[in-house]
Amino acid sequence: MHITILIDNRHTSGLESEHGLCLLVETKTHKILVDTGLSEKAFINAEKLGININDVDILILSHGHIDHTGGLKRFLEINQKAKIIASLYLPNTNYWSNRGGKFHSLSPDAELIRNNINRFILIKDNYFINNEIGVILPKNTNNPKPYGNRYLFVSEGDAMIPYTANDELALSVVEDGRLTIISPCSHQGLLNIADNCCNAMNCSYIAAFVGGLHLLDGESDDVVNIASQINHLYPQMHLYTSHCTGRDACTILQAGLNDRFHVFTTGEGINIGSFIH
Ligand SMILES: [Fe+2]
Ligand SMILES: [Fe+2]
């Protein structure tokens, strides 16, 4: 399996970057795009990298936030065939952040989604593309979720309700008996997502976890515990992160996981399997 980071916060010379994430996951059977970034920039990068977005057969929207859904318009202009898998809650949810003390919208383009609703597969339970590929909604969340979620809300009428990430889904792929999890923002928390994906895919060997962790600098997340739980539960797991994982969290995870910790940048390719011995 091969993963290409089409856009991320971290800049690579010659390519566009932005606060957003878009990854192309190429499995033995499918070309799956996970999220679309904040704007059309991921698709400018795809062209520069020689990647044909027309070949994508499935788009997964990991959750509704605009830094993951903002490129949807451009995707729909380029690709006429891919089905789009997203949470049933996504099209009708208004997303907000009050980080910085003022509410600002993080909502996707609802009209665009409505106009293309025939392309969508909207799910409220785990969805299996085949025996090896699942789209998993983490529902058992006994471990702490990121503190940064407390700046996030959804609105119902005039009421602002804390964001529970009930629209969040993770792509799980099992190849050669080993699980890879792609979870772009991980609002449910890495440990919760990993646990739910292992159970749903009936595989406890995680080869790689790829995505942002929403562990932002200056928050009180117990990142030391996250690293030690990873080492305890998933001793073979490589962690590839960037996007919403802060520098402080990266330093702690690096110290805990050593050579199984990696920070990715825009344009990078990750070969899952090449590091498995
Ligand atoms: Fe998010
Ligand atoms: Fe994000």
Overview in brief:
The protein is an alpha/beta fold and 277 residues long.
Explained architecture:
With 277 residues, the protein is an alpha/beta fold. The protein is built from 7 helices and 18 strands. The longest helix has 12 residues, at 190-201. 21% of the residues lie in helices and 27% in strands. Strand 14, helix 5 (190-201) and strand 15 form a beta-alpha-beta unit. It has one domain: Ribonuclease Z/Hydroxyacylglutathione hydrolase-like (Metallo-beta-lactamase, Chain A, 4-Layer Sandwich), CATH 3.60.15. The strands form 3 sheets. Strands 8-5-4-3-2-1-18 form a 7-stranded mixed beta sheet. It binds fe (ii) ion (2 copies).
Task: Identify the notable features of this structure and list them briefly.
277 residues, alpha/beta, 7 helices, Metallo-beta-lactamase, Chain A, 27% strand
CATH fold topology: Metallo-beta-lactamase, Chain A
Shape: globular
Number of strands: 18
| Spans where pLDDT lies below 50 across 5 or more residues | none
In spatial order, strands of the major sheet run: 8-5-4-3-2-1-18
Secondary-structure class? alpha/beta
Q: Order of helices and strands, N to C?
A: EEEHEHHEEEHEEEEEEEHEHEHEE
Rg (CA only)? 17 Å
Helix content: 10-25%
CATH superfamily: Ribonuclease Z/Hydroxyacylglutathione hydrolase-like
How many helical stretches?
7
Bound molecules: fe (ii) ion
As for the number of domains, it is 1
Instruction: Characterize the largest beta sheet: strand count, sense, and whether it forms a barrel.
Output: 7 strands, mixed
DSSP strand content: 25-35%
CATH architecture assignment:
4-Layer Sandwich
